[in-house]
Amino acid sequence: MKNNYHHGNLKEELIKKGIELINEVGEKNLSLRKLAIICDVSNSAPYTHFKNKDELLKEMSLYIFNLLKLELENTRKKYKNKENLLEMLGKTYVIFFLKNIKYYYFISSRKDVEIDLSLKINENNLTALDILKEEAINKFSKYNIPDEDIQNKILAMWSLVTGLVAIINMTSKNYVENWENKIDEIIKASFITYYKEN
Fold first, then answer.
1. Is residue 57 part of a domain?
2. Are residues 42 and 82 part of one domain?
3. Which part of the chain is the HTH tetR-type domain (predicted)?
4. Are 92 and 128 in contact (CB under 8 A)?
5. What domain range is 134 assigned to?
6. Are 11 and 90 contained in the same domain?
7. Does position 7 have pLDDT exceeding 60, yes or no?
8. Looking at residue 139, which CATH number applies to its domain?
9. Which of 9-13, 140-144, 177-181 has the lowest mean pLDDT?
10. Does 195 fall in a domain?
11. Is residue 10 part of a domain?
């Protein structure tokens, strides 16, 4: 008989186990019933946290992006007011998914993940991208760069780090012994993280 009471944070465990299950058997084979068995709880227990599978999937994406946001916030605090802040935010993004491959595979498989590439920032509910946007705006607005150009730079930076994550996960690990050092070199070599006045 399964436990009706679960010690610890059942919602978080369902999310974590759900991400692992999707990586192992695919999204179509995910169900709240299967997760109940894995977490050793009653079949009804998951429904106290999620109405259905779709809600669970959305919470999984939110969980991952919140972890990423926390990492970016820590980097921002550490490198606040330093010239290389944007580069370090980019590196933090790449390293996060390099160390959490299952999160990368889950997010890259989602069709319902939306990102806001406008210059709007919701101060009350910052996202991982908002942190990059905020710091990019702070940096580039000093040079009176038009908003459209700032937006293009943000898109270029976001594309760089997401592209790096994809490349690392597609490339033979023999290509580079230490990807962390290589990431530094690649981001520093890009021209999109700085601006010179003419």
1. no
2. no
3. 8-68
4. no
5. 64-189
6. no
7. no
8. 1.10.357
9. 177-181
10. no
11. yes
pLDDT digits (tens, 9 = 90+) for 116-154: 888 999 888 889 999 999 999 998 888 888 999 999 999
The pTM is what?
Answer: 0.86
| Residue 111 shares a structural domain with residue 20 | no
3-state secondary structure of 177: coil
Domain CATH for 43: 1.10.10
d(CA 149, CA 133): 13
Residue 194 dihedral angles phi and psi, to the nearest 5°: -140, 170
Q: Of all helices (H) and strands (E), which one includes residue 133? A: helix 128-140
Please give the DSSP secondary-structure letter assigned to residue 117. Answer: -
pLDDT confidence tier of residue 1, bands split at 50, 70 and 90: very low
Alpha-carbon Rg for the chain, nearest whole angstrom, is 20
Rounded Cα distance, 33 and 180, in Å = 40
Contact between residue 60 and residue 67 where contact means Cβ atoms under 8 Å apart = no
